[in-house]
Every structure is written in C-alpha cells, then in structure tokens.
C-alpha cells in the first residue's frame, strides 16, 4: 500500500476541482501524477456575496469524498494541498484575503486538518498553476519561462534560470503592469493596467459596450472574430495591450518561452498567432520567445497544489 | 608578494578607466578591492567614427602602465578584466559588436593577452556595473534588486533571489521596454522605448528642441530645474516614462531595492525624489521599493570587471 498519495484541490470563485493523485518519482523528482479520482463541484454562493463558511464546508465534503475513495485504490493519503485565489501565507497555512471566497484571515490549514485528520497545506493558485506548467506542463525543462494566466484577472509566474521568482515583495502581477498612459481606471486604484484591457472579463465588457448587449463574454468575442468587426476591434485592443506588457517583460527577462493559460487561452491559435505576430513585428532588441498554450489546461491549479504540497 | 592582484578596465566611448586592485577576501568571498593605482585616459577617436585599432592600442598602453606599477606595490597580477559596451561573448573572450568602439567580431581577450602576457577576460559593462553594485555597492545584501544605469542609453541588471538574471536570451534591456503607444521612433527600430524619453541623451535633445539651443545636455536640464519651465517639462516627461517602465518592472519582479547608476544618477535627489513620488502615487499592487543612487559611482564598471574576472 502506497503511503504517498495525496488530495489536491483548486478552489475558484465558480468551481472547486479536487483530485486524488499518486505521484511517480524518478531519482526523487516527481515526474508524473496519476489521477485516481476526480471531483468537480460548484463553489457555493450565498446570494450576492460569497459565503466563506459554506465554501469551507464544501471543501471539506470534496476532500472527504476523495479521502474515502483512497481505500479502494489501495493508497493512503499523506497530505491535502489546496490552491486558493488570494493573499496566502503558505508557511502559516492562512489565507489573509480571498475576495472571491469571502475569506479574510482564515486559518484554512488548521481548520481543515482538524476536520479531516490529515495535514493540509494552502497555496496561491497562480503560483501553483505556474509550478505545474513548469514541472509537468508546457514549460517543462525551460529555464527562463513566463507563464501567463488570463481569466477574470491576469497574473504570471516567472521562472528565471530554473528558479521560481517570488520577489522580496509579491511578484508576478502582470495584470497590473501599466500599458496605457493614463489609461482607464482599474479596480486596484491604478490606471492603464493590462488587466483593464486584456482580461477575459475586460474583453467581455468591451464587447458588451460595443454591441449594446450585456450577455456577452470573451468567448463570444472569439467566436465572432472575422465576422463581426466590433469583435475584431475589441480583440485587437486586447492583443495590443498584451503585446505592450509582454514586450516589456521579455526585454527585461530574456524569456525563452511564454506559456499562456487560464480561460482565455482556450482561444488557442486565435490568441497565440496574433500575439506572436505583434511581438515579431515590434521586437528589435528582445528575441521573441516561443509562445504556447498551457499544457495542463484547467488542471494546472490542482497539479500545482499537489506539487507544492509534495515539494 | 601577493599573487592575487588584478588589472581592471572599463572601456567607454569617451574614456577608459583602469585600476590596479588588490582583493580582500573573507571566507573565500571578495569583500573589498583595494585601489593601488588608477589611470584615466581618453578613448581615441579617428575623426567621426571610432577607431577600433587605436582603441585597442590605448587599452594595451593603460594595462601596461598598471602592470608596470605592480612591482612597486609588491603584487603580481594574475589577470586583466575588461568591461566593454556591446555584445560580448565572455566565454570566447570576443566582442561581437561594440559600435562606440568601432569593433565587430574582435577577439579582444586573445589579442590583449598575447600583447600583455597575462590572461585577459572580457565582460559586458552593464553586467559588470550591476555585479559591482550588488556585491560591494548600494545593492549589497539585497536579494531582489534592480540596478538601472542611465547614460547615453539605459540598461539594467536584475537580481532575483540573490542570483543575477541573465535570461535564456539577452536580459536587462530596460531602455527598450515600451512606455508609449506608439511613441517616438527609437534607433533600435522600435517605437516608444524608454530610452527615447529618459536617457541622458534623450533628455538633452528634448531640452535642445525646447530651447532652440544645440549645446545643452541633461546636466543643463538638471541645473535649470525650478527656474526654467522648459527644463521642468522635459524632466517631468522623462520621469513619467521612467515611472511607467519601473512600475511595470517592480510589479512583475517584487523588487526590494532600485539602485540608479550611470551619468544621470549624478542628479541625485533631483532624480530620486520625484521618481519615488511618482511610484508612490501610482503603485497600488506593487510595494514601492527603496530607491537609492549607485554606491560606486563611475567606478562601478571597473569594480565589476574585477569581480567578474575573479569570480
């Protein structure tokens, strides 16, 4: 009976993804994570605001279902790893702020491990996704990597000379890199942030404003490319903004590969090809790196939560 | 007789600075470089274009003067380190391109070591200056450091988690990070590069254009601040551009300290104070790091050439 299995969760504002995983190692390094069980659940909502307590209960339920299934797979679970969007203190096992989950200063690790009887570790979701892409995904083996996750917001994880960049202060906030002067206001309080132009949410809103429809999202923009000039214009604006921020990043960092993840990366070549074109047309000092979509797709957070917990 | 002394040179487009240095070590690490001799020479010019052969001869002359002086200091010189502005292949000891020196594919290390009878190593000048500030200057002990050198051009060296960032491709080209869309053309072929707005050369040119005088430099702008509104406007533009690029950099990197070096940093608080103000006024996601001027001043290149050669 293996004692090396673990439960990993990616807790988002709309869904909770959980997996029971068995790591395969080579010379001590994790080279694969076999999926033994999966659970996908809706994140509970308490009316207009997220209900933090209900979300914690649902996480407990998902974990218990996965822990219960371990016996039939003849594994025992040594730890639970949870990826969370927000300000996370991994060492303390606490989440200082997770707006989408209704949490402020919640000792998530202590609370869950008391309920589950298994050690629990809490990690930042984007850091997990970046770790996963670097270790087992589209950034595998790349020493100088920029993994960019574009969804409701935009964040990045940087790998420099094979080492993750954590920064003396919080790093990787690509969504709040300025791309326009002075630019549109961002909820963060700045103006001209990349996120205001190129997040999935911003793209959906810009298309809604252009078409007068309030039920459209970034997926509708991608679907209408080439047929609706309004969609083309919104997409072009987003790509121009993304090119500004990424040209700056690769010029500073000498990046070898850009991995694009998050919901918007499901656009695939509709995103990658025009972004590559823009960078090739503009860059004269930086060498334009490979640009690829994420290898682990929506599983990156779960895989990274497992890797961070094992590491 | 110490055999640990070395000769270090910083070869620029206008001057050549050479020093005979004796390292002091603590537990194997270089903790100080004692200056035994100094030479400052003009970089030879052959009319309008730089004369590469004459520059190499002058480097030889400066090195020989420093090597000859070693005997009187009772040291022997184990190596010569040369810092050069351009595209340098340190492993091969060759300079692929150094426009300001008139060099293209010159095997500088082999040529000089044949003339001098001492091993010679060649390094990139900004990498040297960054190494020097990180090791013995204003960035000493800082794990996440951005050292920015503003002179004719703008370049940076990045230190992340205590390690220098070299990039899979060439890194640190802060001067070619875009700050305006589409912005003014840059000699590199891009538009809107930081260097077009905030280098010492760009500031001098903008002031010349504003005043109709062709004999002014960035030093005149600094001297006229507070008395000439044209100087204030030029300086404000440069600082706005610098704030855009640096806000992007610190938001990505989580930088703990920014060290400002190069000729423009001689402006001191006239540069540091308004830059800090702009970053504090703008930043809502990144924590604004310490901003200080370089500790080694114009010696950073020489000190770094020595450190790079010893390391």
From TrEMBL, chains A, B:
This protein's UniProt keywords: Kinase, Transferase
Task: Quote the InterPro entries the UniProt record gives.
Answer: ATPase_NBD, ROK
Q: Name one GO molecular function term.
A: kinase activity
Q: Which Pfam families match?
A: ROK (PF00480)
The entry assigns this protein to a family as follows: Belongs to the ROK (NagC/XylR) family.
Protein name per its UniProtKB record: Glucokinase
Q: Which organism is it from?
A: Flavimobilis soli
Classification from the root reads: Bacteria, Bacillati, Actinomycetota, Actinomycetes, Micrococcales
């Amino acid at each position: 009976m293996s004692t090396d299995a673990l439960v990993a969760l990616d807790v988002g504002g709309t869904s909770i993804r959980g997996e029971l995983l068995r790591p395969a190692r080579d010379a001590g390094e994790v080279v694969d994570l076999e999926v033994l069980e999966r659970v996908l659940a809706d994140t509970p909502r308490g009316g207009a605001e997220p209900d933090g307590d209900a979300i914690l209960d649902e996480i407990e339920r998902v974990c218990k279902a996965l822990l219960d299934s371990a016996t039939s797979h003849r594994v025992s679970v040594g730890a639970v790893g949870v990826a969370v969007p927000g300000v996370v203190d991994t060492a303390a096992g606490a989440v200082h702020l997770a707006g989408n989950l209704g949490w402020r200063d919640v000792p998530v690790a202590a609370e869950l491990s008391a309920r589950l009887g298994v050690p629990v570790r809490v990690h930042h979701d984007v850091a997990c996704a970046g770790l996963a892409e670097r270790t087992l995904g589209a950034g595998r083996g790349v020493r100088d990597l920029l993994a960019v996750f574009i969804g409701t917001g935009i964040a990045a994880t940087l790998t420099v000379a094979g080492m993750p960049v954590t920064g003396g202060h919080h790093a990787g906030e690509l969504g709040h890199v300025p791309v326009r002067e002075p630019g549109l206001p961002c909820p963060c309080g700045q103006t001209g942030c990349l996120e205001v132009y190129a997040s999935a949410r911003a793209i959906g809103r810009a298309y809604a404003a252009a078409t007068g429809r309030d039920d459209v999202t970034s997926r509708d923009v991608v679907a209408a490319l080439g047929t609706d000039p309004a969609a083309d214009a919104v997409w072009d604006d987003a790509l121009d903004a993304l090119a500004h921020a990424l040209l700056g990043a690769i010029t500073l960092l000498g990046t070898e590969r850009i991995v694009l993840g998050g919901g918007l990366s499901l656009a695939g070549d509709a995103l990658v090809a025009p972004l590559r074109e823009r960078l090739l047309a503009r860059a004269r000092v930086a060498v334009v790196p490979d640009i690829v979509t994420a290898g682990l797709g929506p599983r990156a957070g779960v895989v990274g939560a497992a890797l961070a917990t094992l590491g």
